[in-house]
């Protein structure tokens, strides 16, 4: 069996993932069909549209920070068991 990939789950992790998926789908609609779903629902330059864009952006930043923390933790776990170079060098050339 392989080791399960464990991500620290905070109270903001799942909502952030959902908001990021919603934002990605909206950008996909903009790119493919030139249709902005958020603007269609809340108005083109309304305060609520800007708030939705801001919250989705903040969710993306949160996920980036969580991902970087996960990578740092994994790197620390990977190097924890390794022997570190002590700086001492041994020469076996003098032994007969």
Overall geometric form: elongated
**Unreliable stretches:** none
**What is the alpha-carbon Rg in Å?**
24 Å
User: Termini distance?
Assistant: 49 Å
How much beta, percentage-wise? under 5%
Q: Find the structural class using helix and strand composition.
A: mainly alpha
Q: What is the string of helix and strand elements?
A: HHH
Total count of strands: 0
Fraction of helical residues:
55-70%
Largest sheet: none
Tell me, rounded to a whole number, the average pLDDT.
83
Distinct helical segment count: 3
Pfam families: DUF378
InterPro entries: DUF378
Protein name: DUF378 domain-containing protein
Keywords: Membrane, Transmembrane, Transmembrane helix
Distinctive features:
transmembrane, 96 residues, DUF378 domain-containing protein, mainly alpha, DUF378, transmembrane helix, membrane
């Amino acid at each position: 069996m392989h080791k399960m990939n464990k991500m620290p789950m905070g109270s903001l992790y799942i909502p952030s993932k959902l908001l990021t998926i919603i934002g990605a789908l909206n950008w996909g609609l903009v790119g493919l069909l030139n249709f902005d779903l958020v603007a269609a629902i809340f108005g083109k330059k309304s305060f609520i549209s800007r708030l939705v864009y801001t919250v989705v952006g903040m969710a993306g930043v949160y996920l980036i920070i969580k991902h970087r923390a996960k990578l740092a933790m994994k790197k620390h776990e990977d190097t924890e068991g390794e022997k570190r170079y002590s700086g001492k060098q041994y020469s076996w050339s003098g032994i007969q």
